[in-house]
Amino acid sequence: MHKVKNKDVFKASWTYDKAPESTDHIQIKKQYELFIDGKFTKPIKGKYFDTINPTDNKKIASVAEASDKDVDKAVKAARKAFKSWSALTGKERGKYIFRIARLIQERAREFAVIESLDGGKPIRESRDIDIPLAANHFFYYAGWADKLTYAFPNRNPKPLGVVGQIIPWNFPLLMASWKIAPALATGNTIVLKPAETTPLTALKLAEIIHESGIPKGVVNIIAGAGETGAAIVNHPDIDKIAFTGSTGVGKYILNATAGTHKKLTLELGGKGANIIFDDAAIDQAVEGIVNAIFFNQGHVCCAGSRLFVQESVADLVIKKLKDRMKTLIVGDPLDKNTDIGAINSKKQLQTIEKYIKIGVNEGSEIYQPKCKLPKHGNWCAPTLFLNVSQSHRIVQEEIFGPVLTVQTFRTISEVIEKANNTPYGLSAGVWTDKGSKIFHLTQKLDAGIVWANTFNKFDPTSPFGGYKESGFGREGGLHGLKPYVKFE
Ligand code: NDP
Protein backbone atom coordinates (compact mmCIF):
# COMPACT_ATOMS: atom_id res chain seq x y z
CA MET A 1 0.00 0.00 0.00
CA HIS A 2 1.42 3.41 -0.91
CA LYS A 3 1.62 5.97 1.85
CA VAL A 4 -0.21 9.19 1.07
CA LYS A 5 1.93 12.14 2.00
CA ASN A 6 0.29 15.43 2.75
CA LYS A 7 2.79 17.41 0.76
CA ASP A 8 1.22 19.29 -2.09
CA VAL A 9 3.78 18.57 -4.82
CA PHE A 10 2.40 21.09 -7.25
CA LYS A 11 2.20 23.95 -4.80
CA ALA A 12 4.52 26.58 -6.14
CA SER A 13 4.95 30.28 -5.68
CA TRP A 14 4.63 30.77 -9.44
CA THR A 15 1.93 32.96 -10.77
CA TYR A 16 1.46 33.51 -14.46
CA ASP A 17 1.33 36.81 -16.25
CA LYS A 18 -1.18 37.13 -19.01
CA ALA A 19 0.13 35.70 -22.31
CA PRO A 20 -2.56 36.52 -24.84
CA GLU A 21 -2.27 35.37 -28.44
CA SER A 22 -2.54 38.29 -30.81
CA THR A 23 -5.63 38.63 -32.94
CA ASP A 24 -4.07 41.25 -35.23
CA HIS A 25 -3.30 38.81 -38.02
CA ILE A 26 -6.72 37.25 -38.40
CA GLN A 27 -9.43 38.19 -40.83
CA ILE A 28 -13.02 37.64 -39.83
CA LYS A 29 -15.70 38.98 -42.13
CA LYS A 30 -18.85 40.57 -40.79
CA GLN A 31 -20.92 38.17 -42.83
CA TYR A 32 -20.32 34.70 -44.27
CA GLU A 33 -22.18 33.20 -47.21
CA LEU A 34 -22.74 29.65 -48.39
CA PHE A 35 -19.96 28.03 -50.42
CA ILE A 36 -21.79 26.36 -53.30
CA ASP A 37 -20.49 25.47 -56.77
CA GLY A 38 -17.18 27.27 -56.19
CA LYS A 39 -18.83 30.58 -55.25
CA PHE A 40 -19.81 32.31 -52.04
CA THR A 41 -23.54 32.73 -52.51
CA LYS A 42 -26.37 34.26 -50.50
CA PRO A 43 -28.95 31.90 -48.99
CA ILE A 44 -32.11 31.59 -51.09
CA LYS A 45 -34.37 32.49 -48.17
CA GLY A 46 -32.02 35.31 -47.07
CA LYS A 47 -31.68 34.02 -43.51
CA TYR A 48 -28.58 34.57 -41.36
CA PHE A 49 -27.69 33.56 -37.82
CA ASP A 50 -25.10 34.88 -35.37
CA THR A 51 -22.04 32.96 -34.36
CA ILE A 52 -21.15 33.77 -30.76
CA ASN A 53 -17.93 34.01 -28.77
CA PRO A 54 -18.51 31.74 -25.76
CA THR A 55 -16.27 33.85 -23.49
CA ASP A 56 -18.76 36.73 -23.48
CA ASN A 57 -21.67 35.49 -25.59
CA LYS A 58 -21.14 38.40 -27.98
CA LYS A 59 -21.63 38.10 -31.71
CA ILE A 60 -18.55 37.46 -33.87
CA ALA A 61 -20.18 37.36 -37.31
CA SER A 62 -23.39 36.68 -39.24
CA VAL A 63 -23.53 33.38 -41.05
CA ALA A 64 -25.83 32.37 -43.89
CA GLU A 65 -28.30 29.64 -42.97
CA ALA A 66 -28.87 27.04 -45.67
CA SER A 67 -32.49 26.04 -46.27
CA ASP A 68 -33.57 22.84 -47.99
CA LYS A 69 -33.46 24.77 -51.29
CA ASP A 70 -29.80 25.67 -50.72
CA VAL A 71 -29.07 22.06 -49.80
CA ASP A 72 -30.65 21.02 -53.09
CA LYS A 73 -28.52 23.57 -54.96
CA ALA A 74 -25.37 22.27 -53.26
CA VAL A 75 -26.23 18.64 -54.00
CA LYS A 76 -26.89 19.50 -57.66
CA ALA A 77 -23.52 21.27 -57.88
CA ALA A 78 -21.79 18.29 -56.27
CA ARG A 79 -23.57 15.85 -58.61
CA LYS A 80 -22.52 17.85 -61.66
CA ALA A 81 -18.91 18.04 -60.47
CA PHE A 82 -18.79 14.32 -59.67
CA LYS A 83 -18.51 13.27 -63.28
CA SER A 84 -15.26 15.06 -64.02
CA TRP A 85 -13.80 14.87 -60.50
CA SER A 86 -14.18 11.10 -60.31
CA ALA A 87 -12.68 10.79 -63.78
CA LEU A 88 -9.47 12.61 -62.80
CA THR A 89 -6.45 10.47 -62.07
CA GLY A 90 -5.65 9.91 -58.41
CA LYS A 91 -2.44 11.83 -58.92
CA GLU A 92 -4.36 14.91 -60.11
CA ARG A 93 -6.83 14.72 -57.20
CA GLY A 94 -3.91 14.31 -54.81
CA LYS A 95 -2.37 17.59 -56.03
CA TYR A 96 -5.42 19.56 -54.93
CA ILE A 97 -5.54 17.81 -51.56
CA PHE A 98 -1.83 18.52 -50.98
CA ARG A 99 -2.46 22.13 -51.87
CA ILE A 100 -5.25 22.38 -49.28
CA ALA A 101 -2.92 20.88 -46.65
CA ARG A 102 -0.19 23.39 -47.45
CA LEU A 103 -2.61 26.32 -47.38
CA ILE A 104 -3.88 25.24 -43.94
CA GLN A 105 -0.27 25.14 -42.73
CA GLU A 106 0.43 28.60 -44.14
CA ARG A 107 -2.56 30.04 -42.33
CA ALA A 108 -2.33 27.85 -39.25
CA ARG A 109 -2.06 30.77 -36.79
CA GLU A 110 -5.15 32.40 -38.18
CA PHE A 111 -7.11 29.16 -38.08
CA ALA A 112 -6.01 28.51 -34.49
CA VAL A 113 -7.13 31.91 -33.23
CA ILE A 114 -10.48 31.72 -35.01
CA GLU A 115 -11.06 28.20 -33.69
CA SER A 116 -10.47 29.41 -30.14
CA LEU A 117 -12.62 32.53 -30.59
CA ASP A 118 -15.57 30.69 -32.08
CA GLY A 119 -15.44 27.51 -29.99
CA GLY A 120 -13.77 28.47 -26.69
CA LYS A 121 -10.92 25.96 -26.74
CA PRO A 122 -7.50 26.97 -25.37
CA ILE A 123 -5.20 28.40 -28.01
CA ARG A 124 -2.51 25.93 -26.95
CA GLU A 125 -4.77 23.12 -28.11
CA SER A 126 -6.04 24.69 -31.32
CA ARG A 127 -2.50 25.80 -32.22
CA ASP A 128 -0.68 22.56 -31.31
CA ILE A 129 -3.32 19.90 -31.89
CA ASP A 130 -6.42 20.79 -33.92
CA ILE A 131 -4.87 22.74 -36.77
CA PRO A 132 -1.68 20.69 -37.32
CA LEU A 133 -3.74 17.49 -37.20
CA ALA A 134 -6.22 18.92 -39.70
CA ALA A 135 -3.37 19.70 -42.12
CA ASN A 136 -1.90 16.24 -41.49
CA HIS A 137 -5.17 14.59 -42.46
CA PHE A 138 -5.11 16.33 -45.81
CA PHE A 139 -1.43 15.42 -46.31
CA TYR A 140 -2.07 11.81 -45.38
CA TYR A 141 -5.07 11.29 -47.67
CA ALA A 142 -3.41 13.22 -50.50
CA GLY A 143 -0.86 10.43 -50.37
CA TRP A 144 -3.54 7.76 -50.79
CA ALA A 145 -5.30 9.39 -53.77
CA ASP A 146 -3.11 7.65 -56.39
CA LYS A 147 -2.65 4.43 -54.40
CA LEU A 148 -6.20 3.23 -53.99
CA THR A 149 -5.54 0.06 -55.93
CA TYR A 150 -2.83 -0.75 -53.36
CA ALA A 151 -5.21 0.03 -50.51
CA PHE A 152 -7.75 -2.42 -51.95
CA PRO A 153 -5.76 -4.84 -54.14
CA ASN A 154 -7.71 -6.64 -56.89
CA ARG A 155 -10.97 -4.97 -55.88
CA ASN A 156 -11.18 -1.99 -58.27
CA PRO A 157 -12.44 0.65 -55.80
CA LYS A 158 -14.86 3.27 -57.17
CA PRO A 159 -16.17 6.45 -55.54
CA LEU A 160 -19.73 6.48 -54.21
CA GLY A 161 -20.86 9.81 -55.66
CA VAL A 162 -22.13 12.76 -53.60
CA VAL A 163 -21.48 12.52 -49.87
CA GLY A 164 -23.25 14.53 -47.17
CA GLN A 165 -21.13 15.25 -44.12
CA ILE A 166 -22.38 16.66 -40.82
CA ILE A 167 -19.94 17.63 -38.11
CA PRO A 168 -20.13 18.79 -34.47
CA TRP A 169 -18.75 21.77 -32.58
CA ASN A 170 -16.01 20.22 -30.48
CA PHE A 171 -13.26 19.96 -33.13
CA PRO A 172 -14.66 22.03 -36.01
CA LEU A 173 -11.74 22.20 -38.45
CA LEU A 174 -10.37 18.81 -37.49
CA MET A 175 -13.72 17.08 -38.03
CA ALA A 176 -14.10 18.86 -41.37
CA SER A 177 -10.69 17.51 -42.44
CA TRP A 178 -11.47 13.98 -41.18
CA LYS A 179 -14.51 14.04 -43.43
CA ILE A 180 -13.34 15.97 -46.50
CA ALA A 181 -9.84 14.55 -47.04
CA PRO A 182 -10.69 10.82 -47.50
CA ALA A 183 -13.82 11.65 -49.52
CA LEU A 184 -11.76 13.74 -51.98
CA ALA A 185 -8.95 11.20 -52.18
CA THR A 186 -11.42 8.51 -53.23
CA GLY A 187 -13.05 10.70 -55.91
CA ASN A 188 -16.32 11.73 -54.23
CA THR A 189 -17.86 15.19 -54.16
CA ILE A 190 -19.07 16.78 -50.96
CA VAL A 191 -21.77 18.77 -49.20
CA LEU A 192 -20.57 19.53 -45.66
CA LYS A 193 -22.41 21.22 -42.81
CA PRO A 194 -20.50 22.53 -39.79
CA ALA A 195 -22.24 22.91 -36.40
CA GLU A 196 -24.31 26.01 -35.81
CA THR A 197 -22.15 27.23 -32.91
CA THR A 198 -18.79 26.83 -34.70
CA PRO A 199 -19.07 27.48 -38.43
CA LEU A 200 -16.15 29.91 -38.87
CA THR A 201 -13.15 27.65 -39.47
CA ALA A 202 -15.13 25.48 -41.89
CA LEU A 203 -16.03 28.62 -43.82
CA LYS A 204 -12.36 29.71 -43.73
CA LEU A 205 -11.54 26.28 -45.06
CA ALA A 206 -14.00 26.98 -47.88
CA GLU A 207 -11.88 30.04 -48.75
CA ILE A 208 -8.75 27.89 -48.86
CA ILE A 209 -10.46 25.23 -50.92
CA HIS A 210 -11.52 27.97 -53.33
CA GLU A 211 -7.92 29.24 -53.43
CA SER A 212 -6.62 25.73 -54.10
CA GLY A 213 -8.28 25.88 -57.54
CA ILE A 214 -10.19 22.66 -57.02
CA PRO A 215 -12.93 22.38 -59.68
CA LYS A 216 -16.17 24.08 -58.73
CA GLY A 217 -18.83 22.02 -57.01
CA VAL A 218 -16.41 19.37 -55.72
CA VAL A 219 -16.63 20.73 -52.16
CA ASN A 220 -19.69 22.66 -50.98
CA ILE A 221 -19.78 24.00 -47.41
CA ILE A 222 -23.08 25.25 -46.07
CA ALA A 223 -23.84 26.32 -42.52
CA GLY A 224 -27.14 26.01 -40.69
CA ALA A 225 -28.84 24.34 -37.77
CA GLY A 226 -30.24 20.84 -37.29
CA GLU A 227 -32.84 21.37 -40.06
CA THR A 228 -30.07 21.94 -42.59
CA GLY A 229 -28.46 18.70 -41.43
CA ALA A 230 -31.79 16.90 -41.76
CA ALA A 231 -32.24 18.29 -45.30
CA ILE A 232 -28.84 16.83 -46.24
CA VAL A 233 -29.71 13.48 -44.67
CA ASN A 234 -33.07 13.31 -46.46
CA HIS A 235 -31.93 14.53 -49.88
CA PRO A 236 -32.62 11.72 -52.35
CA ASP A 237 -29.53 12.35 -54.50
CA ILE A 238 -26.98 11.83 -51.74
CA ASP A 239 -25.09 8.54 -51.78
CA LYS A 240 -23.54 8.55 -48.35
CA ILE A 241 -23.91 10.28 -45.01
CA ALA A 242 -20.96 10.69 -42.64
CA PHE A 243 -22.06 12.02 -39.27
CA THR A 244 -20.28 12.90 -36.05
CA GLY A 245 -22.38 14.07 -33.13
CA SER A 246 -24.76 12.92 -30.44
CA THR A 247 -26.13 9.40 -30.22
CA GLY A 248 -29.68 10.81 -30.30
CA VAL A 249 -29.23 12.50 -33.68
CA GLY A 250 -27.23 9.47 -34.89
CA LYS A 251 -30.24 7.23 -34.21
CA TYR A 252 -32.49 9.64 -36.09
CA ILE A 253 -30.12 9.51 -39.10
CA LEU A 254 -29.95 5.72 -38.92
CA ASN A 255 -33.75 5.61 -39.14
CA ALA A 256 -33.90 8.21 -41.90
CA THR A 257 -31.41 6.35 -44.10
CA ALA A 258 -32.69 2.83 -43.41
CA GLY A 259 -34.15 1.30 -46.56
CA THR A 260 -32.50 3.86 -48.84
CA HIS A 261 -29.42 3.37 -51.03
CA LYS A 262 -27.42 5.69 -48.77
CA LYS A 263 -24.32 4.38 -47.06
CA LEU A 264 -23.77 5.57 -43.52
CA THR A 265 -21.02 6.02 -40.97
CA LEU A 266 -21.79 7.28 -37.47
CA GLU A 267 -19.29 8.56 -34.95
CA LEU A 268 -21.33 9.17 -31.83
CA GLY A 269 -20.97 9.67 -28.11
CA GLY A 270 -18.78 7.92 -25.59
CA LYS A 271 -18.12 7.31 -21.93
CA GLY A 272 -14.50 6.16 -22.00
CA ALA A 273 -12.97 4.16 -19.16
CA ASN A 274 -9.51 5.24 -18.00
CA ILE A 275 -8.00 2.41 -15.97
CA ILE A 276 -5.06 2.89 -13.60
CA PHE A 277 -3.36 -0.22 -12.26
CA ASP A 278 -1.22 -0.16 -9.13
CA ASP A 279 1.91 -0.91 -11.17
CA ALA A 280 1.45 2.19 -13.35
CA ALA A 281 3.81 5.15 -13.30
CA ILE A 282 1.52 7.15 -11.04
CA ASP A 283 2.67 10.70 -11.82
CA GLN A 284 2.39 10.07 -15.56
CA ALA A 285 -1.00 8.45 -15.04
CA VAL A 286 -2.23 11.54 -13.17
CA GLU A 287 -1.19 13.69 -16.13
CA GLY A 288 -2.98 11.19 -18.35
CA ILE A 289 -6.17 11.50 -16.30
CA VAL A 290 -6.03 15.29 -16.63
CA ASN A 291 -5.48 15.06 -20.38
CA ALA A 292 -8.18 12.43 -20.77
CA ILE A 293 -10.98 14.47 -19.21
CA PHE A 294 -10.00 18.15 -19.18
CA PHE A 295 -8.66 18.37 -22.75
CA ASN A 296 -10.98 20.64 -24.76
CA GLN A 297 -13.15 21.25 -21.64
CA GLY A 298 -14.15 17.59 -21.79
CA HIS A 299 -16.04 18.22 -25.05
CA VAL A 300 -14.50 15.07 -26.45
CA CYS A 301 -16.46 12.01 -27.55
CA CYS A 302 -13.53 9.76 -26.62
CA ALA A 303 -12.81 11.51 -23.29
CA GLY A 304 -11.74 9.33 -20.39
CA SER A 305 -14.75 10.41 -18.34
CA ARG A 306 -14.91 7.32 -16.11
CA LEU A 307 -11.80 6.77 -14.03
CA PHE A 308 -11.12 3.33 -12.53
CA VAL A 309 -8.26 3.18 -10.04
CA GLN A 310 -6.94 -0.01 -8.46
CA GLU A 311 -7.88 0.14 -4.80
CA SER A 312 -4.35 -0.12 -3.39
CA VAL A 313 -3.28 3.15 -5.08
CA ALA A 314 -6.64 4.93 -5.09
CA ASP A 315 -5.92 7.30 -2.18
CA LEU A 316 -2.58 8.26 -3.65
CA VAL A 317 -3.93 8.83 -7.15
CA ILE A 318 -6.90 10.86 -5.93
CA LYS A 319 -4.68 12.99 -3.70
CA LYS A 320 -2.28 13.69 -6.55
CA LEU A 321 -5.13 14.33 -8.95
CA LYS A 322 -6.76 16.86 -6.62
CA ASP A 323 -3.39 18.61 -6.20
CA ARG A 324 -2.90 18.74 -9.95
CA MET A 325 -6.43 20.04 -10.51
CA LYS A 326 -5.67 22.99 -8.22
CA THR A 327 -3.09 24.17 -10.73
CA LEU A 328 -5.35 24.09 -13.77
CA ILE A 329 -6.02 27.53 -15.18
CA VAL A 330 -9.58 28.11 -16.35
CA GLY A 331 -10.14 31.22 -18.43
CA ASP A 332 -9.43 33.16 -21.60
CA PRO A 333 -8.98 30.64 -24.43
CA LEU A 334 -6.60 33.04 -26.17
CA ASP A 335 -4.20 33.09 -23.19
CA LYS A 336 -1.35 30.65 -23.80
CA ASN A 337 -1.36 29.62 -20.13
CA THR A 338 -4.98 28.52 -20.14
CA ASP A 339 -5.67 24.84 -19.55
CA ILE A 340 -9.46 24.88 -19.66
CA GLY A 341 -11.21 27.37 -21.92
CA ALA A 342 -14.86 28.34 -22.29
CA ILE A 343 -17.74 25.89 -22.50
CA ASN A 344 -18.84 25.95 -26.13
CA SER A 345 -22.37 27.31 -25.65
CA LYS A 346 -24.85 28.35 -22.98
CA LYS A 347 -26.88 25.27 -23.85
CA GLN A 348 -23.94 22.94 -23.27
CA LEU A 349 -23.11 24.71 -19.98
CA GLN A 350 -26.69 24.12 -18.83
CA THR A 351 -26.35 20.42 -19.72
CA ILE A 352 -23.12 20.10 -17.72
CA GLU A 353 -24.58 21.98 -14.74
CA LYS A 354 -27.65 19.75 -14.88
CA TYR A 355 -25.43 16.67 -14.59
CA ILE A 356 -23.38 18.17 -11.75
CA LYS A 357 -26.65 18.67 -9.82
CA ILE A 358 -27.73 15.13 -10.63
CA GLY A 359 -24.39 13.83 -9.31
CA VAL A 360 -24.76 15.71 -6.04
CA ASN A 361 -28.41 14.66 -5.65
CA GLU A 362 -27.49 11.02 -6.29
CA GLY A 363 -25.25 11.23 -3.22
CA SER A 364 -21.78 11.36 -4.79
CA GLU A 365 -18.99 13.41 -3.24
CA ILE A 366 -18.07 16.39 -5.42
CA TYR A 367 -14.64 18.02 -5.60
CA GLN A 368 -13.90 21.24 -7.46
CA PRO A 369 -10.67 23.14 -6.81
CA LYS A 370 -11.03 26.77 -5.87
CA CYS A 371 -10.50 28.59 -9.12
CA LYS A 372 -11.44 32.02 -10.28
CA LEU A 373 -13.92 31.82 -13.12
CA PRO A 374 -14.37 34.86 -15.39
CA LYS A 375 -17.54 36.84 -14.68
CA HIS A 376 -19.07 36.70 -18.15
CA GLY A 377 -19.39 33.84 -20.58
CA ASN A 378 -19.67 30.07 -20.18
CA TRP A 379 -17.30 28.46 -17.68
CA CYS A 380 -17.10 25.31 -15.63
CA ALA A 381 -14.49 24.40 -13.01
CA PRO A 382 -12.83 20.99 -13.37
CA THR A 383 -14.97 18.58 -11.37
CA LEU A 384 -14.46 15.19 -9.72
CA PHE A 385 -17.16 12.89 -8.41
CA LEU A 386 -16.08 10.34 -5.81
CA ASN A 387 -18.15 7.58 -4.21
CA VAL A 388 -20.08 6.89 -7.37
CA SER A 389 -21.48 3.55 -8.43
CA GLN A 390 -22.16 1.95 -11.79
CA SER A 391 -25.84 2.85 -11.71
CA HIS A 392 -25.34 6.57 -11.20
CA ARG A 393 -26.49 8.64 -14.15
CA ILE A 394 -23.23 10.60 -14.17
CA VAL A 395 -21.44 7.28 -14.73
CA GLN A 396 -23.80 6.04 -17.42
CA GLU A 397 -24.57 9.16 -19.48
CA GLU A 398 -22.29 11.33 -21.61
CA ILE A 399 -21.82 14.73 -19.95
CA PHE A 400 -19.44 16.26 -22.51
CA GLY A 401 -17.81 18.58 -20.02
CA PRO A 402 -14.89 18.70 -17.54
CA VAL A 403 -16.52 16.23 -15.15
CA LEU A 404 -14.86 12.98 -14.06
CA THR A 405 -16.35 10.12 -12.07
CA VAL A 406 -13.98 8.00 -9.97
CA GLN A 407 -14.45 4.35 -9.05
CA THR A 408 -12.09 1.75 -7.65
CA PHE A 409 -11.51 -1.91 -8.47
CA ARG A 410 -9.52 -4.83 -7.10
CA THR A 411 -9.12 -7.36 -9.93
CA ILE A 412 -8.69 -7.27 -13.69
CA SER A 413 -11.93 -9.12 -14.33
CA GLU A 414 -13.81 -6.67 -12.10
CA VAL A 415 -12.52 -3.64 -13.98
CA ILE A 416 -13.25 -5.21 -17.38
CA GLU A 417 -16.83 -5.84 -16.33
CA LYS A 418 -17.25 -2.33 -14.96
CA ALA A 419 -15.56 -0.66 -17.95
CA ASN A 420 -17.80 -2.53 -20.41
CA ASN A 421 -20.96 -1.81 -18.46
CA THR A 422 -21.99 1.13 -20.63
CA PRO A 423 -24.10 1.57 -23.74
CA TYR A 424 -21.08 3.20 -25.40
CA GLY A 425 -17.92 1.65 -26.87
CA LEU A 426 -15.63 4.34 -28.21
CA SER A 427 -12.44 4.63 -26.18
CA ALA A 428 -10.52 3.39 -23.17
CA GLY A 429 -7.13 3.90 -21.55
CA VAL A 430 -4.92 1.46 -19.63
CA TRP A 431 -2.06 2.51 -17.36
CA THR A 432 0.31 -0.25 -16.27
CA ASP A 433 3.94 -1.25 -16.71
CA LYS A 434 2.97 -4.75 -17.88
CA GLY A 435 2.65 -5.21 -21.63
CA SER A 436 0.77 -8.48 -21.07
CA LYS A 437 -1.93 -6.65 -19.09
CA ILE A 438 -2.27 -4.10 -21.87
CA PHE A 439 -2.73 -6.81 -24.50
CA HIS A 440 -5.20 -8.68 -22.30
CA LEU A 441 -7.32 -5.56 -21.79
CA THR A 442 -7.24 -4.45 -25.40
CA GLN A 443 -8.81 -7.80 -26.26
CA LYS A 444 -11.48 -7.57 -23.58
CA LEU A 445 -12.56 -3.94 -23.62
CA ASP A 446 -15.47 -3.10 -25.93
CA ALA A 447 -13.89 0.04 -27.28
CA GLY A 448 -12.86 1.12 -30.76
CA ILE A 449 -9.70 2.76 -29.43
CA VAL A 450 -7.63 1.65 -26.47
CA TRP A 451 -4.69 3.85 -25.46
CA ALA A 452 -1.88 2.36 -23.40
CA ASN A 453 -0.05 4.66 -20.98
CA THR A 454 -1.38 7.69 -22.82
CA PHE A 455 -4.76 9.16 -23.75
CA ASN A 456 -6.37 11.32 -26.43
CA LYS A 457 -3.58 10.80 -28.94
CA PHE A 458 -4.65 11.14 -32.55
CA ASP A 459 -2.89 10.38 -35.79
CA PRO A 460 -4.17 10.45 -39.37
CA THR A 461 -2.72 6.99 -40.00
CA SER A 462 -4.70 5.44 -37.19
CA PRO A 463 -8.37 4.41 -37.52
CA PHE A 464 -10.89 5.92 -35.10
CA GLY A 465 -14.47 4.82 -34.40
CA GLY A 466 -16.73 2.97 -32.03
CA TYR A 467 -18.88 0.00 -31.15
CA LYS A 468 -22.36 -0.22 -29.66
CA GLU A 469 -24.04 3.19 -29.26
CA SER A 470 -20.81 4.97 -30.18
CA GLY A 471 -21.58 4.23 -33.82
CA PHE A 472 -19.95 2.32 -36.65
CA GLY A 473 -17.42 2.87 -39.41
CA ARG A 474 -13.87 4.10 -39.06
CA GLU A 475 -12.22 7.42 -39.87
CA GLY A 476 -8.47 7.77 -40.31
CA GLY A 477 -5.91 5.40 -41.71
CA LEU A 478 -6.49 2.99 -44.54
CA HIS A 479 -9.78 2.00 -42.86
CA GLY A 480 -10.99 5.58 -43.33
CA LEU A 481 -10.97 5.16 -47.13
CA LYS A 482 -13.35 2.22 -47.11
CA PRO A 483 -16.59 4.06 -46.25
CA TYR A 484 -16.08 6.21 -49.37
CA VAL A 485 -15.65 3.47 -51.97
CA LYS A 486 -17.66 0.70 -53.53
CA PHE A 487 -16.28 -2.37 -55.25
CA GLU A 488 -17.33 -3.58 -58.64
P1 NDP B 1 -25.85 17.14 -32.28
O1 NDP B 1 -25.74 15.69 -32.51
O2 NDP B 1 -27.21 17.75 -32.25
O3 NDP B 1 -24.99 17.94 -33.35
C1 NDP B 1 -24.07 17.39 -34.26
C2 NDP B 1 -24.32 17.90 -35.68
O4 NDP B 1 -25.55 17.39 -36.17
C3 NDP B 1 -24.43 19.41 -35.78
O5 NDP B 1 -23.90 19.85 -37.00
C4 NDP B 1 -25.93 19.60 -35.73
O6 NDP B 1 -26.33 20.84 -36.24
C5 NDP B 1 -26.40 18.45 -36.59
N1 NDP B 1 -27.79 18.05 -36.39
C6 NDP B 1 -28.62 18.33 -35.35
N2 NDP B 1 -29.82 17.78 -35.56
C7 NDP B 1 -29.77 17.13 -36.76
C8 NDP B 1 -30.70 16.36 -37.53
N3 NDP B 1 -31.94 16.12 -37.10
N4 NDP B 1 -30.29 15.84 -38.72
C9 NDP B 1 -29.04 16.05 -39.16
N5 NDP B 1 -28.12 16.79 -38.49
C10 NDP B 1 -28.47 17.31 -37.30
O7 NDP B 1 -25.11 17.48 -30.94
P2 NDP B 1 -25.39 18.75 -30.00
O8 NDP B 1 -24.64 19.86 -30.59
O9 NDP B 1 -26.82 18.99 -29.76
O10 NDP B 1 -24.79 18.24 -28.62
C11 NDP B 1 -25.62 17.48 -27.75
C12 NDP B 1 -24.83 16.39 -27.08
O11 NDP B 1 -24.30 15.54 -28.06
C13 NDP B 1 -23.62 16.86 -26.30
O12 NDP B 1 -23.95 17.24 -25.02
C14 NDP B 1 -22.76 15.67 -26.35
O13 NDP B 1 -23.11 14.79 -25.32
C15 NDP B 1 -23.07 15.01 -27.66
N6 NDP B 1 -22.09 15.31 -28.73
C16 NDP B 1 -21.25 14.33 -29.09
C17 NDP B 1 -20.29 14.59 -30.04
C18 NDP B 1 -19.33 13.55 -30.46
O14 NDP B 1 -18.34 13.87 -31.09
N7 NDP B 1 -19.60 12.31 -30.20
C19 NDP B 1 -20.14 15.89 -30.67
C20 NDP B 1 -21.15 16.85 -30.28
C21 NDP B 1 -22.06 16.54 -29.33
P3 NDP B 1 -26.41 22.10 -35.24
O15 NDP B 1 -25.17 22.15 -34.45
O16 NDP B 1 -26.48 23.22 -36.16
O17 NDP B 1 -27.63 21.87 -34.40
Describe this structure in words.
The structure is a single chain. This protein is α/β, with parallel strands linked by helices and 488 residues long. Helix content is 39%, strand content 18%. The chain has 15 helices and 22 strands. The strands form six sheets. The protein has a seven-stranded mixed sheet, sandwiched between helices. A six-stranded mixed sheet has the order 9-8-7-10-11-21, sandwiched between helices. Strands 1-5-4 form a three-stranded mixed sheet, covered by helices on one side. The longest helix is centred in the first third of the chain and has 22 residues, at 123-144. It is globular and about 65 Å long. The model has no long low-confidence stretch (mean pLDDT 96). It binds NADPH dihydro-nicotinamide-adenine-dinucleotide phosphate. NADPH dihydro-nicotinamide-adenine-dinucleotide phosphate binds at residues 166-170, 193, 195-196, 225-226, 229-230, 233, 244-246, 249, 252, 268-269, 301, 348, 351, 398, 400.
Instruction: Give the integer mean of the pLDDT values.
Output: 96
Main pleated sheet: 7 strands, mixed
> What small molecules are bound in this structure?
NADPH dihydro-nicotinamide-adenine-dinucleotide phosphate
The total count of strands amounts to: 22
Termini, distance in Å? 61 Å
Rounded to the nearest angstrom, the radius of gyration is: 22 Å
Q: Give the overall silhouette.
A: globular
Unreliable residue stretches: none
Q: How are the strands of the largest sheet arranged?
A: 14-15-16-13-12-18-19
